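---------- Forwarded message ----------

FYI, see the Ribose-5-phosphate isomerase A record below. Original note from H. follows.
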Amino acid sequence: MNQDQLKQAVAKAAIDYIQPKLESDSIVGVGTGSTANYFIDYLADIKGQFDGTVASSEASAERLKSHGIPVYDLNAVDQVVVYVDGADETNPQRMLIKGGGAALTREKIVAAVADEFVCIADGSKWVDVLGAFPLPVEVIPMARSHVAREIVKLGGSPVYREGVVTDNGNVILDVHDLQITDPVDFENKLNQIVGVVTNGLFAARNADVLLLGTENGVETK
Ligand code: 5RP
């Protein structure tokens, strides 16, 4: 199977995983990216079996609505039973790098609220040590240079993602040259820099379940 087929396979596996947990009043959290898009398309097939969704990006909200799936403001819901989203990297502890699609802040918020976080990823995302994929950091625009200098002090090489404005009106620095051996510590250190909104390490709140698409099928980690 090619990478796209693996993404489809894990998206379908996520439907099979969440379907028994859904009730008529359930709210499903929905992530962002090409793997999440496959999930959204499959979710349309079972849209009568839950109440609605909260989306981690405007793009995902639009795709959900195009399928006739209700999308709620997160402030309007009491509970998100499950959040399903892709990742740019995952380690064996299901700690992730996310934000390749610049949606990391809303993704982290929905993941924090959700009772359960299910990550869906093709096998190319599996690593022993996080950091080969440049770590996205969402930054308040006026703090961009300050944050970049502080990141250099932490050993990273930040690159401004030109032309990208997040759904929250901020900018992204992609941090290269990292080998993140203590992801929780590094996530916290980045959060301490004034001007950082969110960083793409999902370590303090890792995924509860990882559905990984491999040549041997979808493995549950
Ligand atoms: C978006 C994300 C995505 O989950 C991540 O970039 C993976 O994307 P894809 O499923 O297209 O490989 O974090 O901000």
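H. also flagged this: The chain has two domains: 3-127+204-216, 135-199.
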